[in-house]
Amino acid sequence: MTLDQFFDNLWNDYTAMTPQAQRIHDAFVDAGENIINDHVAFRTFDRGPITLADLEPHLLALGYTRYEPYDFAAKKLRAYGYLPPSPDQPRVFLSELKCDELSASAQRIIDGLVGQIDAERVQAPEVLWAGRLWAPPSFEDYQALMEESEYAAWLAIIGLRANHFTISVNHFHSYDSVEKVLDKIESLGLGINASGGRIKGSPDVLLEQGSTLADRAEFSFAGGQIEEIPTCYYEFAKRYRDVDGKLYQGFVAASADKIFESTNVRGERHAG
Ligand code: OOG
Ligand code: NI
């Protein structure tokens, strides 16, 4: 599979689940901008056949290289950033939930999900947009996971796919700041993730980021209960050059910590 095919597949899956993404994309194209992706991100459990170490070989086979590790102690997550084979291609952010740090009952729920995965499917790169690889959980199990981890609850429903694409603001001409981009997003009637402030990071840390609040969709839980849940979101990033003139390639843990909350059901995503 070529990198272009990989991203076409990811994009098609992502926009099917995230109507706001196509709208935002088209709005900037209509405004004369050229859309280049800064990065995409995936989430997984560090359990069963889909741990970060199980999924990483697909990225390496596409020519990606490991860059930097990140740790999110409070959210019980660890992650890696990956660099693309050539500079104008998207970076990748891959995180996993440290399941050992959840309660025994939450771990049992997660083991019940990942225990259903056909390990064969994880061998193909298509697993990265396969979505949920297990039967829908009950709403009670979803809520029990939610008590301990928004990420766990989201992943139990949405599964493996790009949870966001990120537009490179560096490649924009008129909308050349994250603030201008976010104003445009609001003019489309879409919400911004304000956790930690509308703009995360600064030129000092060589990366500024902002994101939408995830779209919402109805989902059928086990037993037929239908509830609205957050799906996926869109991000906007502007990178700066360091003192040696080299464009920053990493992520910023303090900012990423807040970007994760773009898919939150609860409170903090509305806080300032
Ligand atoms: C990833 C959040 C972190 C970034 O650019 O810092 C991130 C996620 O929501 O899974 O994408
Ligand atoms: Ni991101």
UniProtKB/TrEMBL annotation:
Signal peptide: none
Cited CDD domains: VOC_like (cd16350)
Presence of keyword Iron: yes
Enzyme class: oxidoreductase
Similarity-based family: Belongs to the 2-oxoadipate dioxygenase/decarboxylase family.
The enzyme's E.C. designation: 1.13.11.93
Keywords: Dioxygenase, Iron, Oxidoreductase
This protein's name: 2-oxoadipate dioxygenase/decarboxylase
Species for this entry: Modicisalibacter luteus
Gene3D superfamilies, sorted: 3.10.180.50
InterPro entries: HGLS
Domain of life, per lineage: Bacteria
Cofactor(s) required for function per UniProt: Fe(2+)
Entries under Pfam families matching the protein: HGLS
Keyword Oxidoreductase attributed: yes
